[in-house]
Write a structure and sequence with these properties.
Number of strands: 3
Strand content: 5-15%
Largest sheet: 3 strands, antiparallel
Number of helices: 5
Strand order of the largest sheet: 1-3-2
CATH class of the largest domain: Mainly Alpha
CATH topology of the largest domain: Arc Repressor Mutant, subunit A
Order of helices and strands: HHEHHEEH
Amino acid sequence: MSVVESTFTIVAEPNRRAILSLLLSSERSVGELERELRLSQPSVSKHLRVLREAGFVESRIEAQRRLYRLRPEPLMELDEWLVPFRRYWSKHVDALERHLDKMDEVPSLEKVPSVKGKKKHEQP
């Protein structure tokens, strides 16, 4: 399995993504993560272990608790892998925007006088 594939496998799990999202703003303890996510301590610890082993998070000990923080490197690798796809998608969004702009320039049917409802003997 490639690094990118294993990265996708790790972040595919919703609770791990939630943990990563929470760690975006600040480092947190297991207890804080438990409360925020409403998960059991063993479950949070299991997800943190997977994230730590993959290099997504690191921890430090402060007094009686272990604090976890995000490590950007694996996410940067994932972002780097996504660059060509972002370019591809951007081209298509730009083309759609140009198409919609052209459609705005075409007179709409609402502006064209209606001949509907006129009797056969009336001229349009």
